[in-house]
Amino acid sequence: MKPKTISTKTPVPNRLQGTDGVRREIKSAKDSECKGQTPIQVFLEKGWITEEFMELYSYCYVKNQPKKKPAKYLTIVIGWDPRDPSGIFTDAVVRGVRKAGGKAIVLGVVPTPLVPLFMLHKGADGGIMVTASHNPKDQNGIKLFLPFHGVKPLPADDAILTQSLLKQKFAPIKKASLKGGRTDYRHKALELFLHFSLLPENSWLKSRNTLKALTLVVDPAYGALAGIAAQTFREAGVGKVYEVNAGKSGAVNLRSGVADLEGCPCITRDMTLKPAGRFHRHKAVVKLFEIGRANQKSAKSGKKRIAAAIFDADGDRFFRLEYDPFQDTIWVLSGDETAILQARHLVTHEKYKGSLYINTVESDLNASTSAESMGLSPLLTAVGDKWILLKIHLALLEQKLLTAKLAKKEQAQIKNKIKPLQKNGVTSVSAILDLDELIPDTPDTEKKHPETLAVGSEETGHNITTGYLTLPNKKKIEVYSGNGLKSALNTFAATEQLATTLSPEKYIQSIRRPFSPGFKSTLYTYYIRQDLFCRDSQVWKKVKRLLLQTAKQNGYSGKTRIFPDDPDMLYIALAEGKAGVFVRNSGTENKISVNLRGRKSDARKLEKIGLEVIKLLFSLLKDPDNALYKMELYALSQIASHPVTDEKLEVKNQYRLRLIDEMKKQNLIQSSPEGNRLTPLGKWYIIH
Asked: What residues are annotated to the active site?
C-alpha cells in the first residue's frame, strides 16, 4: 500500500495499523520532545505512542462504532497487560471511551482472549486490549475487537479509523467531559475465563486425572496470565505446577516468554551456562532443566512427564517445552508442532474428516502436508491471526448456507457473492456481516455436518480451535480466538492420552517432532524505513529483481504469488511450490524479514539467497534518523575492536538488553565466553 502525503513532514499511510492494531515505543506527551506536536504528529514523525494518542485512538474507535437503538451508550470491554503499572496509558484509553460516550466495562489485567470472550458474554459493542503483545516493555499498543463473533478489524476498517484519527483534533477531546460510565468486572471476567477454559469441550480433558503425571513449569512472561494460567493448570489436575517470571513490575517479555524461543528447535544444557549461554537468563528454561534432572529416573520410566507452558505478555501465544530425559535436552514446540499435535487428536473423531487446517506463510511447509495426510483440508493464508479468523468465518458462511432453508436461486446468488471474497480477499468485516444476515439460522437440532475447522495455526504460537460459550440467555455459541491457555490445555490433553499407548522413549520421539520438519529460517533487519517497502515501490522492485536473479543462480525458477490479504508481501514460490522465499514488513515491530521455507535439501541454496537479500535490505532500508540505529552502529564499533560483555556495552541502560537481543536476532553479533563478538555478517555490515 503506497503512502500518501499530507501537509506535514511525514508520509501518511492509509492505515496507521499493522498486522494487529497499533504498537510503538511509548513516550509521555509531557516529554520535552513531544511538546508542540499533536498525538498523530508524534506517532508519525517520532514513532512514539503517547497517552494522548491512546485517548484519541479509543475515542475515535467508539465514535466509529454503529450505535444500537434504543441504547443510550455503546458498551466497550477494556483489558490490558501489566506493562503499564502506572496506569497512564490504560487510564487514557478508558477516558477516551467515556468521552466518546461509551460505557467502559473494565477488566483490568487480563489475557487478550478474555476481552472478545467477555464482549460476547455481555453482548457489548466492542473490545479494546491495551498491549504490545510479545514486544519489549518499552512499547505499548491497542488491539481492537468487533461485535461480529469477536473478529478483528480488516484493512478497510483500519483505513476508516485512520481517516477519523487524522481528521479529529485532540484539543477538544482533552477538554471534553466524561459522558459514559465505568464498571469494573475483573472478578466476574476471570470466573468466566476459568469456567470456559476448564469445560471438557474446550479443554479436551476427560477427567481431573488426565494430567496427574504432568509436572509443569509455567512462564507467563511477567504478563497477563501471571497467576491465572498456573491456577487453571492446578484446577485442571496437573500433578505439579511451578510458576516463574510472574512478577508485577511491568517488565513483560524480559528474558521470558515465547519471543526468546523463536527459531530454536531444541535447547541443550550448555545453552543455559553462564556467561555465554543463550538461555542462562531464561528462568523457565533453567527451571525446566533443574526439575527434569531431579526427576530424570521417573521421567524415563514414564511415571512423570516434565514440560513447560510458555506464553507472551498478553496470553494469546503459547509454546511448549518438553524435557527429554533420555538426551537431557529440551525440545521447543512452536505453533506448528502444537497445532499438528492438536490436529492429530481431533482426527480421531470422524466429524473432523475434511475439516480445515489453516496456517500462515510463516509455517513449515511440511506442517500442512502432514495435516493433509491426516485427512484434513490445508489452507494457506497471510501472516496474522485475523486472516485465519477471516478464513474460518468465510467457511462458516458456506456451511451455514448449506443448511439454510432457502430457495435454490437464493442459495446460488449468495454463493456467487461468497466466491469472489474467497478468491480476491475481504477488506472489511461488514462484507461478511452483510452476507451472514442474508442467511437464516438453522435450528441446532437440524444441523448435521462435519466440523468446519480443525485447527488454525501461526508458527509464532497463535493457535485457534473451536471454543464453546454459553451466553446468559442460555444460547450456546462457537467462539474463535488466539488463546494461549486453551492451546496449552488442548496440547497437553492430546499428548497425555498419547502417553498411555506408547513407551516413554517413543512418546518423546512422537511429540518432539510430530511431523517431519522441512527447512525454515527467518532473517531480520531492524530500525528501518518500513514505508519504503511496499508493492511496486523502488525498493520492492530491487528486492524482487535480486531474489529472482539469485534464485536462478541457485537452480530455481521463481514465480510471484499474490496474497490479497497482504498485497505488500513479496512472495516468490520456488520448486513448484515446494520451497519459497517471502519478504514482508513486520506489522508489530520496526523490522522487515526475509523468510526461507522449503525442504531440508533446499537449506543451503535458500540460505545463500537469503543472505544476499538481507544484505540488500540492510543497505536500502536502515533509517539513519532512528535513535536505536545510531546506538546499534556505536555498539558494533565497540564490539569490533574487542569482545564486549552485555554489562560493559556503552549504550543507554534502558535500551541495552533490547539492543543486544535485536543485534543477535539480526545475526550481527554472537555470544562468547569473553563477551559479544561480531559475526561474519556483522563484520560485513560495519564495513558497508
From this structure: 133
